[in-house]
Write a structure and sequence with these properties.
The structure is a single chain. The chain is mainly α and 354 residues long. A hairpin with a 2-residue loop joins strand 5 and strand 6. The protein starts with 6 loop residues before the first strand and ends with a helix. Bound molecules: adenosine-5'-tetraphosphate. The site of adenosine-5'-tetraphosphate has 18 residues, from helix 1.
Amino acid sequence: MSEFKPLVFSGVQPTGNLHLGNYLGAIRKFVALQESHNCIYCVVDLHALTAQIVHQDLVGQTRSITAAFLAAGIDPKAHIVFNQSRVPQHAELAWIFNCVARIGWMNRMTQFKDKAGKDRENASLGLLAYPSLMAADILLYRATHVPVGDDQKQHLELTRDIAQKFNSDFSDRIAEIGLGVEMQVGKELINGYFPLTEPLIDGPAPRVMSLRDGTRKMSKSDVSDLSRINLTDDADTISKKIRRAKTDPQALPSDVEGLVGRAEADNLVGIYAALCDRTKAEVVTEFGGQQFSAFKPALTELAVDVLSPISEEMRRLLNDTTHIDAVLADGGERASAIADRTMTDVKHIIGLQC
Ligand code: AQP
């Protein structure tokens, strides 16, 4: 029985400064997975258009995310790094998936509801169809694993729904052409073309929260810069932001159960744990009983230690963009070769091409 070859895909939008949430929820995992998997990492510039169609500096933002990938340790020779708009098959497969997915599925997406707000009728069709393009990004490479933050879990489930519906709608044709891979779906053994991709979300900080409000996700689009630590922040700025991070008046608990109901404390402990590759339980064992006035300087020191080398390397790379542009061009070519094969198969399966 043939099997899908393990392949990792993930993307980041060039919509502003990368922050600690993007780093801990996504980029750090990207780096680790290079050791065990073939990986494709994409700057998803077409997704950025769902926020605003005219961007002042989309090219600059794309280079900056690429610089962050490289500075964090992604190897663009051993793996593939490119920007989405270089490979038109992303948009082509997304259109086909728009015809597979159901409007009801899209309407249920919490990110759409949050971003569209009250004026849904006025939101772009692109914002509604965003998960369909995301499914295309992943399935164009028949990727089996996607490292993401917890906020993307629902979109990954939808990617699986799209793959499953495509496999099932075209099962006879897939078998007839011999393009299928046998896989177990519930109790059924089906012959699918697309894998049911697994999200990789685990870790001590799958959803890093705002430093100003422990119930809201740390986000590029938050109006308050104090809510996030940007990868480009210098040591003084990181120190100021952590000093001013919202906390409660109690000391840190000695076990993780003591973090329940204390969103801000839980967030800072989770950040500390993720930054030093430890569990939250280990961190509260060390700091339990101490006040935030003692914990915050330790967190600052750790954050500066981890982030400074990355921001320095980003600055160096961005000083001369020739290397970054060459990485994106080379990655785009290698990604196109895979994308081309998938689209030829898909057209064959759905009957667009004999
Ligand atoms: N707060 C977070 N905690 C953990 N992971 C996070 N990610 C984003 N925010 C957090 C993960 O980072 C990856 C890239 O995200 P993205 O840029 O593609 O989109 P996003 O989730 O919309 O990021 P932002 O920062 O929240 O942007 P805005 O403000 O534009 O909505 C993804 O894997 C994501 O899960």
